[in-house]
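User: Please work through this fold.
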Amino acid sequence: MVDKKSSSTSAKILYRPVGLVSGLISGAVAGMVFKQVWKRLTPQHTEEAPTALQSEFDVKEILFAAAVQGAIFAVVKAAVDRGGARMYERLTGEWPGD
């Protein structure tokens, strides 16, 4: 059985600044993680991952880089958001979502 956590409108509103800050932090962390992962995945390249407007890269490599970056950003964001919500719940006794 799933334990539904209760949430009030005030908890959602009060959590917004926490969510905003955690979003900024997760973006920065995900960017650093992606750079390290990209270096290990493509040791032959010393530059950063290709972007869509760099004509010297094959479209396959650009799409692969985008997919890896997207996956890393999604996982880091979910982990940071969930951790922030749990911390908020411990401090206030209310779950900020749902």
